[in-house]
Amino acid sequence: MIPARGGSKRIPRKNIKPFCGRPMIAWSIEAALASGCFDVVVVSTDDPEIAKVAKAHGATVPFMRPPQLSDDYTGTIPVVAHATQWMVDCGRRPDYVCCVYATAPFVSADTIQKGLKVLEEEGVDYAFSVTSYAFPIQRAIRLSQQGRVEMFQPEHFNTRSQDLEEAYHDAGQFYWGRASAWLASAALFGANSAPVVLPRHLVQDIDTAEDWLRAEWMFKALHTTENTL
User: Fold this and answer.
1) Would residue 51 count as lying in a domain?
2) Does the pLDDT at position 1 exceed 90?
């Protein structure tokens, strides 16, 4: 299931804006289809233009997402639960449902397959992509209202970076889950979730124009390297 609402604010029409020669959502659809993991690849959207683009690239759009699930505050879990319940109501009861973000051009068929394997072998509710922070979060600083800096954890000022515990964050690419977990709105970040660790060069949030530019540079560099090997 690929969520793709039409009301993106910071980057207008982000889900179908051209990214390295294709509408952004096309990269996610292509990876999902190529993985061979799914009976159906569904795009959940409230936008007719996004629906048209999604269908043109091989996804199905069997319903339009209701307005109450298409605002700026609705999270991922309710949207996936809605799509899952729609399938159940239509007589198709999935065992697993994977949410692939529409703005994840670095997602690959291989990592989607790996996520399914982790979900099955670990016996957890969810398995999703994560990556490590490039800098120790224990040495992070904040900017004060007075234009000064202060540490979040000043007790680690003299701690060597290599002595600090490595931290990870959600890579924002895909979330495999048991259908029952989605429908129950089970917590995504918790003891019943397993990580699928990705290298940092395959992860880039795309929330601003600067993010978009950086992602295109990374994407082109990665594919140039692959083509020359």
Assistant:
1) yes
2) yes
